[in-house]
């Protein structure tokens, strides 16, 4: 790890990294399942399906419940009608606001790269009053590709002023999708260990891991590219 000599761009995942959105997603999923006369899922089941975007979420739900594959279009449409404004049960992880403030005060350009669609992404950032901290927001529908494809993360770094072919920045996330995406760019990856990942930490590639956002600013300064 090298000492950061100048503020580098930092891009964050959203669900499972900055916010615990699983309760809202779970509530929306079960409302849709009830509407279509399907059995409900537990919070843990839904939490384990989060990370790949809405289409993958519903592919996993359909597989878990043994539903017809051709039901996905109607289920996703019903889900999105609720998901666009689902904020009531979502919470920021402890220390997120302060950590973002410290990094912004130190001059780091900050961005979001998430597989969550843009409309609910902007809604939740506005809900918590942190949208203005981020100079760019790349959502799951910003490009045809989604994480772990590196294209969305490269776009986020480009919008923060970095060279998308070789961005001298950091990515902060929580999941297998994030780890693979960072490696594909490539950029150093910092992993929040209390998020939604399903794989043991030792089986993922990361530069540093943390379970408390108060530790993040010092990790950034220790591990950011010079």
Automatic annotation (TrEMBL):
One Pfam entry for this protein is: HAD_2
Name the cofactor(s): Mg(2+)
Q: Which residues bind Mg(2+)?
A: 13, 15, 174
Which Gene Ontology cellular-component terms appear in the entry? cytosol
Q: Name one GO molecular function term.
A: metal ion binding
What does the record give as the active site?
13 (nucleophile)
Q: Which UniProt keywords apply?
A: Carbohydrate metabolism, Hydrolase, Magnesium, Metal-binding
Q: What does this protein do?
A: Specifically catalyzes the dephosphorylation of 2-phosphoglycolate. Is involved in the dissimilation of the intracellular 2-phosphoglycolate formed during the DNA repair of 3'-phosphoglycolate ends, a major class of DNA lesions induced by oxidative stress.
What protein name is recorded for this chain?
Phosphoglycolate phosphatase
């Amino acid at each position: 790890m090298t000492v950061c000599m100048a503020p580098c761009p930092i891009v964050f995942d959203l669900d499972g990294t900055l916010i615990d959105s699983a309760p809202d997603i779970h509530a929306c999923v079960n409302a849709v399942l009830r509407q279509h006369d399907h059995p409900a899922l537990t919070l843990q089941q839904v939490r384990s399906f989060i990370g790949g975007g809405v289409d993958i979420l519903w592919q996993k739900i359909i597989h878990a419940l043994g539903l017809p594959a051709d039901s996905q279009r109607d289920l996703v449409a019903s889900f999105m009608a609720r998901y666009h404004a689902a904020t009531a049960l979502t919470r920021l992880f402890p220390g997120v606001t302060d950590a973002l403030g410290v990094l912004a005060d130190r001059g780091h350009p900050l961005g979001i790269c998430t597989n969550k669609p843009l409309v609910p992404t902007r809604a939740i950032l506005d809900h918590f009053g942190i949208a203005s901290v981020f100079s760019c927001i790349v959502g799951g529908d910003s490009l045809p590709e989604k994480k772990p494809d590196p294209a969305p993360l490269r776009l986020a770094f480009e919008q923060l002023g970095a060279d998308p072919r070789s961005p001298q920045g950091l990515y902060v996330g929580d999941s297998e999708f994030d780890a693979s995406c960072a490696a594909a760019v490539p950029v150093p990856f910092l992993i929040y260990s209390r998020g939604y990942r399903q794989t043991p930490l030792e089986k993922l590639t990361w530069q540093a891991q943390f379970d408390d956002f108060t530790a993040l600013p010092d990790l950034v300064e220790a591990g950011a590219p010079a």
